[in-house]
Target: Tc1-like transposase DDE domain-containing protein
Amino acid sequence: MDETIKSKKDAFLRGLTTGPANPRGKGKRLIVLHIGSAAGFVPDGLLCFESKTDTGDYHDEMNGNTFLEWFKNILPSLEDNAVIVMDNAPYHSVKLEKLPNTS
Model:
């Protein structure tokens, strides 16, 4: 499982732009999540949306809550004994409940 988040600047840095000018790094992002295996992509596993902000920080929209809802919805579609591999994106490891502290 992996996700791809592209901006104009990211496209330019990867050589995917056709324009002569280096685009600014700010602007809306296309946020794409999908899950697949050697057998192909999981049906109905795609989450794709355009960010609503132009701040350059997509983390307000692609966050632990968004990821958790997508993940809970996709789990029933996975085969039995599926192995799930994730990178270390912050929204993959959010705490659902904060532990009480002593202060």
In short: Helices lie at 8-13, 64-74. The mean pLDDT is 78. The chain is about 15% helix and 15% strand. The first strand starts at residue 2 and ends at 6.
